Amino acid sequence: MTTHAVPGSARRAAETWEALFRAQVTLMRRFQADEVWVELSLREYDVLFTLSRSDDGTMRLRQLNENVLLAQSSLSRMVERLEARGLLCRSVPEDDARGTLVGLTDAGRRLQRRVGARHVRAMDQYVGGALDAEEQAELVRLLTKLRTAQADIPDWTPHG
């Protein structure tokens, strides 16, 4: 069996990714176990939260799909369920009859804020309990840099 040497920069990148991934998994497990999610699942909250971040509480379904961690078909079914609960409404945009606009209802906005307030307190305990304000600011800066740089980094190929 032949082993290929991994360059130092690749090893560092792999260690960095693993540390980031493992921290995220650890925190997500804690968040999922919290009693925050009585009225709404974490994934449902993600949809409401993402919509709440838009200027008017609405997004095209395609845009919403790009910003949540769900497959398109799962998101469509979830939007239907949240609409049936009166938390979202769907409409057709005036400029694109094939598109779908998804928007928060007043009830959806109130629930997102109520659940979000509890979730933020849990985040403060778990993240703030491990990192001080300066460390949190540095982590935000680094993670934002990592995320935004991806648009300018070409896709990896096994030959390149």
Descriptors:
6 helices; 61% helix; single chain; 3-stranded antiparallel beta sheet
How do the helices and strands line up, and which of them pair or pack?
Blueprint: H1 8-33, H2 42-52, E1 58-60, H3 61-67, H4 72-84, E2 88-91, E3 101-104, H5 106-128, H6 133-149
Describe this structure as you would to a colleague.
The protein starts with 7 loop residues before the first helix and ends in an 11-residue tail after the last helix. It has helices at 8-33, 42-52, 61-67, 72-84, 106-128, 133-149; strands at 58-60, 88-91, 101-104. The mean pLDDT is 91. Helix 2 crosses helix 5. The longest helix has 26 residues, at 8-33. It has 160 residues and is mostly helical. It has a 3-stranded antiparallel sheet with strand order 1-3-2.
Sheet having the most strands: 3 strands, antiparallel
What is the string of helix and strand elements? HHEHHEEHH
Strand order across the largest sheet: 1-3-2
Task: Based on Cα principal axes, name the global outline.
Answer: globular
Gyration radius (Cα, Å) is 19 Å
Helix content: 55-70%
pLDDT averaged residue by residue:
91
Give the helix tally: 6
According to DSSP, the number of beta strands is 3
Low-confidence stretches: none
Which band does the percent of strand residues land in?
5-15%
Counting helices, strands and paired strands, the structural category is: mainly alpha
Euclidean distance between termini CA atoms = 23 Å
